[in-house]
Amino acid sequence: MASNPGRVKVAIVGSGPAGLSAAAHAAELGLSHMLIEKTDHLSDTIYKYQKGKHVMATPSNLVLRSDLDFDAGKREAILGTWDEQVAAHKVNVKYNAEVKAIRGTGDPIPGSVQQIVTRARDGTKSVKEVQRHAPPYAIELSNGETVIADNVVLAIGTQGNPNLMRCPGADLPHVQYQLDDPAEYVDEHIVIVGTGDAGIENARGLAEDPAQRNTVSILNRGNEFPTAKAANVSALMADHEAGKLTVRTGSETKSIEPGWITLTTRDGELRIPCDRIIARIGSAPPRAFVEECGIEFSSEDRSAYPRLSPVFESTAPGIFVIGALAGYPLIKHCMNQGYDVVEFINGNTSLKPADEPIIAEKFRNLPGNRSTDEWLEFLRTRVSILNGMNGLQMREFMLDSEARFYRAGEVIFERDAPGSSLFGIASGSVAVEVNPADPSITVPIEAGSIFGEVGLISGRRRGATVRAAEDTIVVEISRLAALKLQSQVPAAKRAIERISIERQLLQMFGSGLTREDVAPLVDAAEVQEKPAGTVVVTEGADDKDIYIIRRGSMVVEKDIGGKPVFLSYLPAGSYFGEMAVIDGSARTATVKAAIKSEVVKFPGELFNALLDAKPAVRQRALADMEGRRRINAFVEERKATFGSAADMYSQTAQFLIDNGIGEATDALLIDETLCVGCDNCEKACADSHEGLSRLNREAGKTFAHLHVPTSCRHCEHPHCMADCPPNAIKRGPDGEVFIDNTCIGCGNCQRNCPYGVIRMDAKPPEKPGLLTWLLFGKGPGPGEASYSWRKKKAEAQGLSTAKQAVKCDMCSGIDGGPACVRACPTGAAIRVAPEKFLTVTGEGGLD
């Protein structure tokens, strides 16, 4: 292309989608420009996509502003189109030109202009003083040339600075961070780490051709995919169902060794063969280079983004930042920004972003006469967890969130209501009703803070009713948006974590404690993940820490004659370890994770200091201890007489936890000493659900006299909700997990449920009415048509291909509660919460 033109109106650094779009529009407007690219080809990020990759054009409701075309399609086709159109627009491209530095040549900028930047060069650290100057800018290239530009657009992305794995063996040669051509790998065990779009696409590409004989697994720390596109997630789960690859949810890398990888999973450790690891765990901005340009970041976090104005201008006047470096990774967004930034540079400051109509609708019902930008800044600056985002990130964030206004006294949510969204208070305040018997007893939460974090973290129902104490504006953040926020803004994750820990302490001990009282404990808190089966506290040990369960559950056991005797079950929100801390004794029992859990560890000496300062808290803790001491004393007294009964008791408890009771909120158990096999429970279930039974009494596992049939556990964190494209799976007012009539029969919920309690069944036709039966003899006659008749009819009519997901909904909306329990003539069928199941097993009779 053209040689160095001397001084240009705008220099664009980086030819990804954002940079290409900016350069194309500069050419269209006739502005002197230069597109600087360090490689010998355009759009290196997409060029490095795996061969044949299908590139998506999302969000679908966002219009594209660009002089270049872009639509969903194969990587090669998109790159070919751009090459042709860049040439047609006569874009001035300088290839093989790596930028070493960007320096202002104008007058020094007054104020906070001196920045000391520490950089590592050749293994040594040097300190360099950087002074920001005004435009024009001298762009120094690695070949010795210099480009002078009145304005600079940085569109360099973050792909050159990937996040690295941090575990034993992460430096082994078979760990890589890029996949160029999936066809290069044949007959390998390959593990993909990371379930963003890049990780999902790599996994699918490697598993696409069965002739390659690759065994592909992809690891997801949780059960959700907050940073991936819905279409990618659906395609991934379809491949999983088809057996092309394995999606391992609730799993992460513990260690790597040649030929193997060890994972921590919800059920414990798992070692699997592994010839290659491809880690797609995100990337961070090239901070040192950007800061040397005189650009400030929003925070000190490694993954923080530059501070930008609404027109993409950084803290260095005349240097603009767009694309992934600005926190907007989607291609369509990037191309729109490229177009918009050149419009701004050309003087069109009245141009509104392409997503303006979508976001403006979010603020339509709020009081006050503010523009969209003013509302975004209002929320960003007023809600503490949003402070770490720049204006561009706020726009993307609001696409998945809602701004709401509540009048004084209005209920925002009620105690025991389902819900996992998080709320940030931008103005006003809310009152939390802490005593269900007396709504007048409230705790205030002020502007800037958050509430609803318990549902977000633990998955449990709302712990209290929350009302607007005055006219209040909040931003409601969906669970997926909150998870994405925490992954992209570390400061937000820390703030949510701190607030949730503080509130757990205040709610757990009550007694008039204040935030100042628990501040030392909160400062010293350490959040720890505990895989299933991990021992947290060991009987006889002399450690002196106290723990709160944030997520998951624990079991408490005592050693009797060399065998563990089950003492109790501790759900999320419980605390343990206080006995040894208060009385200085050794641990009296072992506490271990029933399922993959998360605990908060506090130093015992700080807890004791709190008890010394607050006698009322000590009395509360002593009262809790008394119940545990009674159990321990009872066990000690009956050592000689426990024998096989104690052993059976522990085995029964472990069996129930292994079969999902540990993460249940409501589970169906059948006492087989009482069950007569009448199947009334199944019939009642079918009668209550249009002939579609949600229960299979005979299926499921049994231990001793206890049977766990295939009926939904209504888990704290429902696995079935992890990927439901139409969002048909919801929680009802009593905590029941149900599937509504928007189900499309995709089967994702069935694949994600580890307990086999969801099945895909043909949608039966409506039962013919009485008149139709009388006049035409159609249908089974008076009474409810049996499920078998309706299913057979559906198959005869060719309707069996239309599927729907079927599972227990706890007979939601039916008077009297679950029909299966009401119909049992002997009382064999019972539904219980996990903390109560031992009292109804018949094995609890150790006294």
- What is the strand content? 25-35%
* Rg from alpha-carbon coordinates: 31 Å
Whole-number tally of structural domains: 5
CATH class of the largest domain: Alpha Beta
CATH superfamily of the largest domain: FAD/NAD(P)-binding domain
Binned, the helix content reads 25-40%
CATH architecture of the largest domain: 3-Layer(bba) Sandwich
Number of helices: 23
**Mean pLDDT across all residues, rounded?**
81
Low-confidence stretches: 1-5, 111-131, 839-847
Protein name: Cyclic nucleotide-binding domain-containing protein
Pfam families: cNMP_binding (PF00027), Fer4_11 (PF13247), Pyr_redox_2 (PF07992)
GO molecular function: 4 iron, 4 sulfur cluster binding; metal ion binding; oxidoreductase activity
Organism: Alteraurantiacibacter buctensis
Word description of this protein:
- It is a single chain.
- This protein is an alpha+beta fold.
- The chain has five domains: 7-160 and 284-352, FAD/NAD(P)-binding domain; 175-279, FAD/NAD(P)-binding domain (3-Layer(bba) Sandwich), CATH 3.50.50; 358-498, Jelly Rolls; 520-637, Jelly Rolls; 655-763 and 802-840, Alpha-Beta Plaits (2-Layer Sandwich), CATH 3.30.70.20.
- The protein is 29% helix and 25% strand.
- It has 23 helices and 43 strands.
- Strands 1, 2, 5, 6, 9, 10 and 19 form a seven-stranded mixed sheet that branches. A five-stranded parallel sheet has the order 11-18-12-13-14, covered by helices on one side.
- The longest helix is centred in the last third of the chain and has 23 residues, at 615-637.
- The protein starts with 6 loop residues before the first strand and ends in a 15-residue tail after the last strand.
- Residues 1-5, 111-131 and 839-847 have low confidence and may be disordered.
- Keywords: 4Fe-4S, Electron transport, Iron, Iron-sulfur, Metal-binding, Transport.
